[in-house]
Write a structure and sequence with these properties.
The complex is a heterodimer of chains A (290) and B (424). Chain A has 290 residues and is mostly helical. Chain A has 13 helices and two strands, in the order H-E-E-H-H-H-H-H-H-H-H-H-H-H-H. Chain B is built from 18 helices and 14 strands. Chain B is globular and about 75 Å long. The chains are: A mainly alpha (290), B alpha/beta (424).
Chain lengths: 290, 424
C-alpha cells in the first residue's frame, strides 16, 4: 500500500530531522573540522592537521583517558545491571513493604546528580562522614574515598551505581512482569527449581530488557560529568578525569578548542563503536537462544 | 465568558503583567554597561550594593552586574563573547590571564581615559608593579579585588598551647606538629592545611629563594627552590602526617580548606586574604591572621583580579564601564569593598584613610595583609604562563605531592614537557 501523498512521511520526519541536523550533525561536523586546528577562540586558528590527535595519543593521554573511562563504565554497567536485577527479583511482589522499598530505591534515580554528589561528598568525608564513622565502629581504618588516586574512581562508580540501580530495577521489574506465568508454572510442574527456572526461562526472556539497560547505562556512564565536577574535579591527580570531564577541562580550563574537539570526535567514535558492539552481541545472543 | 472576551482579558492581563514587570529607568538616556563578575556569597552582595549605589548616584552612566560563575567559567564565557563579537563593557579577570588577553588584542588600552594614570594605586597591586615590565606596556588592567596568600590560625588554640605563628619553615613544621591532635591511629585535628596548588607553590618557591620564570623568560620551575617547596609539602603530608590535603581541586580545594578550618578539623591554614571577613564572621573561635613564614626570604605572590574593558565593546558601554571603575576606585568604595570582604585596598589614599581612622589597630588581622604586601613579588608578563600552569605545572605539583615522587625528577619532567609543548 502506498501513501496517498508520498511526501507526507518526509514532511512528518522533517522537524525531527531538522533538529538532528541543527543540534547534532552540524555541531559534530563542526567539531570534527575544528579538531584539525589549534585554536583558543581569540587568536586566529592554526591548521595542524591531525596534530591534536597525535598529541593526545603520543603522550599517552588518550589511552589513559580511554582506559579510565572504560574501567568506570564496566564497573557501573555490570554493577548497576546486576544490582538492579537482584533488587527486581527481590521486590517484584505485590506487598506494601515491597512497594515502599521499590519507591525508596527508585527515588535515588529521580534526584539530581548534583544533589546525589553533594550527599555522598558528605557521607564519604574521611573524618566526619557517616560511612567512615560506621566503618570506624567496625574497626576499619579511615579510608580516603575521594582523596586516594587508587580508590577515587571506584568510589565515583559506586555513587553512580547507587543512583542508576533504581532505574535498572524498575525496567527489570517491567521485564519480569512480561514473563508468562504459565511457562514458569509448567516448568515448576516439570520439576524445575527456582534457579533452573530463572536460568532457563526468566533470564533468556529478559534479554532485550538487559540489552536496553546495559546500553543506556553504558551511555550514561560514558557521559558522567556532574558527579565528577562536584566531588573530585577530575582529581586526585588525574585519577577521575574521564572523557567528558577531560573535554570540559580542555575547553573551559585550558582554552584548547582544537584538542577538546578532537576528544569529542574520539568520544563519539568510541561510544558509537561500543554501543554497536554491545547491541550486536545481545542481538546475536538473543537470536541464538530463540 | 465569550471566547472573544477571554482573549481580550488574556491580552490585557499579559500586557499589564509585562508593564508591571518592566524595569523603569529614571534616566532612560543613561549609557549602560554590563559588568560580568565572578563572585558568590558575601562578595557578590557587597559588589551588588556598590553597583546599586553607583546607579543611584549617576545621571549619565549605569552599570548592570551579571554573575558569570567562577573565574574559570567567567573567562570561558568572556572568550566566547569576544569570539562572537559581543563582549560586555566591563569584566574582571585573574592576573595570570591579563597578558594573554592583551597579547590577543582583546583589551582596551586605558591610557587615554581621563585620569587613568592619576588613580594613586598601590604600586605592588597595579599593572606597573604586579608584572615585570607591566609599566612599559599600555595600561589595560586596573586593580579590583587583590589579595595575597596568608596564614590563619585558631587563636584560642594557639594561645592554649603557648604557640606563636611560625616565622620560618622549620617553625611551620613544629607548629603543625604541636597543633595536630591524634586519637590512636586517627587524626582528630590536623595542624595544617593548604590547597596544593599553583599559587601557594609559587609562594613557597619565592620563599625558598627562587622564581618560576627566570628574568630571561626561561621557565625554570624554581630549580632547587621548586624542589624544596615540593619537599616541604611532602614532608608535612607523608612524613609528619600533620598536613591535611583538601578534597577537590582548584577553587573547590580552597573551599574545602575553609570548611575544615571553620569546623575545627584544621588549626592552621593558608588561603587568601579574600576570606578574612568570611572566616572571622563564621568561625566559632577567634581568628588570628599572620604572614606566611620565610625560608631563605619572605615572599608572596599577589592574586585576585583586575578590571578590564574589552576592546570590542560598544563605545557607550566602555564609557559607562570606565565611569564605574573610577567610582569603585574612589576612597569610599575602595574602603567599603576592602573592609567588608578582606581584599586589600588598592589605592594609597584609601589605606591612609583607614590608617588615620584607626582601622588597623582595631583589626590587626587586616593590618597583616598590608604588612605582607612588602614581600610581594611581581609575576612575569607571560601570555603563556597560565596555560603552562593549567596543563603542566598544576598536575605535576599535585602528582608529586600526593604520590610522594622525587621532586627533582618531577620538575625535570615538567621542564622537558614545557620545552616540547606546541604553542596553540
Amino acid at each position: 500500500m502506498s501513501p496517498r501523498r508520498p511526501w507526507h512521511p518526509w514532511a512528518m520526519l522533517a522537524p525531527t530531522f531538522a533538529l538532528l541536523v541543527v543540534f547534532f550533525f552540524y555541531p559534530l561536523g563542526y567539531a570534527a573540522y575544528r579538531s584539525l586546528f589549534s585554536w583558543d577562540l581569540l587568536t586566529p586558528p592554526v591548521y595542524v592537521g591531525f596534530g591534536n590527535y597525535t598529541e593526545l595519543s603520543a603522550g599517552g593521554e588518550l589511552a589513559r583517558l580511554f582506559g579510565r573511562t572504560l574501567l568506570f563504565s564496566v564497573v557501573v554497567v555490570v554493577s548497576s545491571t546486576s544490582l538492579g536485577l537482584g533488587l527486581a527479583l527481590l521486590l517484584n511482589r505485590p506487598t506494601r513493604a515491597a512497594a515502599f522499598a521499590r519507591g525508596a530505591v527508585f527515588s535515588a534515580y529521580v534526584v539530581s546528580w548534583v544533589s546525589v554528589a553533594l550527599l555522598w561528598l558528605w557521607l564519604l568525608d574521611r573524618e566526619a562522614g557517616a560511612v567512615g564513622g560506621l566503618l570506624g565502629h567496625l574497626g576499619v581504618s579511615p579510608v580516603d574515598w575521594l582523596g586516594s588516586p587508587g580508590i577515587a574512581l571506584y568510589t565515583l562508580a559506586g555513587v553512580t551505581v547507587w543512583k542508576l540501580a533504581g532505574y535498572s530495577m524498575i525496567l527489570f521489574i517491567a521485564g519480569l512482569q512480561d514473563v508468562p506465568a504459565q511457562i514458569l508454572e509448567a516448568a515448576a510442574l516439570d520439576g524445575a527449581g527456582p534457579a533452573t527456572r530463572f536460568r532457563r526461562i526468566t533470564w533468556p526472556l529478559l534479554g532485550p530488557t538487559t540489552a536496553f539497560i546495559a546500553t543506556t547505562s553504558l551511555i550514561a556512564s560514558f557521559q558522567v560529568f556532574d558527579v565528577i565536577r562536584v566531588m573530585t574535579q577530575g582529581g586526585p591527580v588525574q585519577a577521575t578525569t574521564v572523557f567528558v570531564y577531560a573535554i570540559y577541562e580542555q575547553i573551559f580550563m585550558d582554552l584548547q578548542v582544537g584538542k577538546a574537539s578532537a576528544l569529542v570526535v574520539v568520544f563519539f567514535v568510541v561510544l558509537m563503536g561500543l554501543t554497536t558492539l554491545q547491541l550486536r552481541l545481545w542481538t546475536r545472543k538473543g537470536g541464538a537462544e530463540t | 465568558m465569550t471566547p472573544a472576551l477571554g482573549r481580550r482579558a488574556l491580552i490585557l492581563g499579559l500586557g499589564g503583567t509585562a508593564l508591571a514587570c518592566a524595569r523603569r529607568d529614571e534616566f532612560p538616556e543613561r549609557k549602560t554597561a554590563s559588568f560580568w563578575f565572578s563572585y558568590g556569597g558575601r562578595n557578590r552582595e557587597v559588589l551588588e550594593d556598590l553597583a546599586r549605589r553607583f546607579n543611584a548616584s549617576q545621571t549619565h552612566h549605569a552599570i548592570r552586574p551579571v554573575f558569570q560563575g567562577d573565574y574559570h567559567e567567567g573567562l570561558a564565557k568572556l572568550r566566547t563573547a569576544l569570539a562572537a563579537g559581543v563582549p560586555p563593557g566591563l569584566t574582571h579577570v585573574v592576573g595570570e590571564v591579563v597578558p594573554y588577553l592583551y597579547e590577543a588584542g582583546t583589551l582596551e588600552p586605558l591610557d587615554d581615559y581621563p585620569g587613568a594614570h592619576e588613580l594613586g594605586l598601590v604600586p605592588a597591586l597595579s599593572q606597573a608593579g604586579a608584572w615585570v615590565g607591566g609599566g612599559d606596556r599600555p595600561l589595560v588592567a586596573l586593580p579590583f579585588n587583590r589579595s595575597t596568600p596568608i596564614a590563619y590560625f585558631d587563636a584560642a588554640l594557639m594561645s592554649a598551647l603557648g604557640l606563636r605563628p611560625p616565622k620560618t619553615w622549620d617553625e611551620l613544621i613544629e607548629v603543625a606538629r604541636a597543633l595536630t591532635l591524634r586519637d590512636g591511629g586517627r587524626v582528630k585535628r590536623y595542624g595544617f592545611s593548604s590547597p596544593v596548588g599553583w599559587w601557594f607553590w609559587a609562594a613557597l618557591v619565592g620563599q625558598a629563594g627562587g622564581s618560576i620564570v627566570e628574568a630571561d623568560g626561561r621557565v625554570s620551575l624554581g630549580g632547587h627552590a621548586g624542589e624544596r617547596a615540593l619537599a616541604l609539602w611532602q614532608r608535612l603530608v607523608h612524613d609528619e602526617g600533620t598536613m591535611k590535603l583538601p578534597l577537590g581541586r582548584d577553587y573547590d580545594a580552597w573551599e574545602a580548606v575553609n570548611r575544615d578550618y571553620l569546623s575545627g578539623r584544621t588549626a592552621m591554614i593558608w588561603t587568601s586574604t579574600a576570606f578574612l571577613r568570611y572566616l572571622e564572621d563564621n568561625a566559632a573561635f577567634p581568628v588570628l591572621a599572620a604572614p606566611l613564614p620565610a625560608d631563605r626570604r619572605a615572599a608572596v605572590p599577589t592574586g585576585g583580579t583586575y578590571f578590564v574593558v574589552p576592546r570590542g565593546a560598544p563605545p557607550d558601554e566602555k564609557e559607562a564601564a570606565y565611569a564605574f571603575v573610577r567610582f569603585m576606585l574612589e576612597d569610599d568604595q575602595t574602603i567599603e569593598w576592602s573592609t567588608r570582604t578582606g581584599y586589600m585596598p588598592v589605592t594609597l589614599s584609601a589605606i591612609e584613610r583607614l590608617r588615620r581612622s584607626g582601622h588597623y589597630e582595631r583589626h590587626p588581622n587586616a593590618a597583616v595583609t598590608l604588612t605582607q604586601l612588602e614581600d610581594a613579588f611581581p609575576w612575569p608578563w607571560s601570555p603563556d604562563l597560565f596555560r603552562l600552569e593549567r596543563e603542566i605545572i598544576r598536575p605535576l605539583i599535585e602528582d608529586t605531592v600526593l604520590e610522594n615522587r622525587p621532586p627533582a625528577a618531577a620538575l625535570e619532567e615538567g621542564r622537558r614537557r614545557i620545552a616540547a609543548r606546541r604553542r596553540p
